[in-house]
Amino acid sequence: MSWVRLARVAFLATACLCCAAGQQPDSAYEKNNPAQPWFKKNRSKKDPSTRTVRGVVTDPRDNPVDGAVVQLRDTKTDTTLTFFTKENGAYRFDGLSKTVDYELRARHRGLSSPVRVLRELDNRTDVVMNLQLESKTQEEAENQKPPSQDQN
């Protein structure tokens, strides 16, 4: 038990000496690199090797669409990311590679937007692509119907 007391006294003495000597933890490194909580790290610094695509999905009357499915397809790996819009019709995909082409499309209740393409050659880091839903054309509707069977 005497060792525990001795350790406590040594710790308190060291702390008092540091305070009395006026030592502060303000090194040049700490001034330039302040500690931040994990949820705030790298928020202000954007990764220059990635980009963001965002926008609003609207119906044929230009109203924002709640619950539209926005699909982003990576043409290099053929993987698809999906985002469901909220009541303001907004969607957002972050951390996209600048070395890949992406295809973007929105769908909602039988309506779909034309496919929009985000090209590798587009050097913007924050890309806005609004998507407007359109009703299917007569030709598209006919192509989706199963062929009629002859009853001879």
- Whole-number average pLDDT? 76
Count helical runs.
3
Total number of strands: 9
CATH architecture of the domain at 50-136: Sandwich
| CATH H-level superfamily title of the domain at 50-136 | Carboxypeptidase-like, regulatory domain
Biggest beta sheet attributes: 5 strands, antiparallel
- Detail the poorly predicted runs: 17-41
Helix content: 10-25%
Name the beta content range. Answer: 25-35%
Radius of gyration equals 29 Å
Under the CATH scheme, which class of the domain at 50-136? Mainly Beta
Task: Describe the global form.
Answer: extended
Provide the structure class.
Answer: alpha+beta
Return the string of H and E elements: HHEEEEEEEEEH
CATH fold node name of the domain at 50-136: Immunoglobulin-like
Euclidean distance between termini CA atoms: 103 Å
